[in-house]
Amino acid sequence: MTPPHLPVLLDEVMAALVLEPGAHMVDSTFGAGGYSARALAAGAQVTAFDRDPRAIAAGQALAAAYPGRLRLVEAPFADMAAHVAPASADAVAFDLGLSSMQLDQPAYGMSFRHDAPLDMRMGADGPTAADFLNTADETEIADVLFHLGEEPAARRIARAIVRARPLARTGELADLVRRVLGHPRGARRDPATLSFQAIRMHVNDELGQLARGLEAAVEIKRRNHGLAAIGQEGGVRPPARLLFAGRKADERAEADALGDAGQRFLRNERGVPARAPQAVWKARSRRSHGQPIMRSCGSASGGMLCAMPTATGGGAFCCWLC
Length: 322
Description:
The protein is an alpha/beta fold. Among the domains are: 1-9 and 84-98 and 205-212 and 223-241 and 252-322, no CATH class; 105-203, DNA polymerase, domain 1 (Orthogonal Bundle). It contains 13 helices and eight strands. An eight-stranded mixed β-sheet has the order 3-2-1-4-5-8-7-6. Helix 7 packs across helix 10 (193-203), helix 8 (154-164) crosses helix 9 and helix 12 packs across helix 13. It starts with 9 loop residues before the first helix and ends with a strand.
């Protein structure tokens, strides 16, 4: 059975994890089932997590195609250790950030391309983006936009949001940000991109979830077995930087816990730091578009870092330990 969406670097990650028939893989971000489907086809048993009940419901067809081999758990990956026994997983995979399914379906309220309720939640509980924007003070909104979205005009946008409240639709928010920033003709990126990213990350506590998820992954995976993560720079830029280069944003209070977890993630089982090479951050060029770039992390356990440059200069990153 082929999933509707194939994750970036799927082949590279699955090759690195080296799943054998009967192995137990934990897919921490089930989404459309790309990793799970590939692991099942290789003969593995899979425990898959997603906090989105819609993803879990859609995954039942894949579970039916592989009876008894796919366990779907409706929970965030931060809670993996509550559902998987310690040292029982042969591989753990993370595909961080937003899926195309969430962007394409207006009901999620994730995209500025559709006018929809201002939701942005990956799951079914907790405050929505509208709840946050309509109740938080101007300073808190500005901090979220600046720290999670790296939006230079965070204070101007936050001021405009407070003046325009209440906001209820994605179209309202997108138009507001465009008015504040302007929209130069021919610009490749919509002015609302960073604001939507930051608000989504805040609503879903993505940095906190990732810090706790990495801790859980270390607990449930077997010693000297694989742990892989992919992050799309520009979509999950703060987590990607911390995952693959240790601590790069010490000034951000929100990143403290993630920095510690990311550093542990980049250590082998004997505690030797795995140094992510700076060359990989300079490898984003249009000439390399679509060609994975491999570099050793320098760890004794054979960790590798992989970056696939994109046409717009962003990068999809993958780091694994074997």
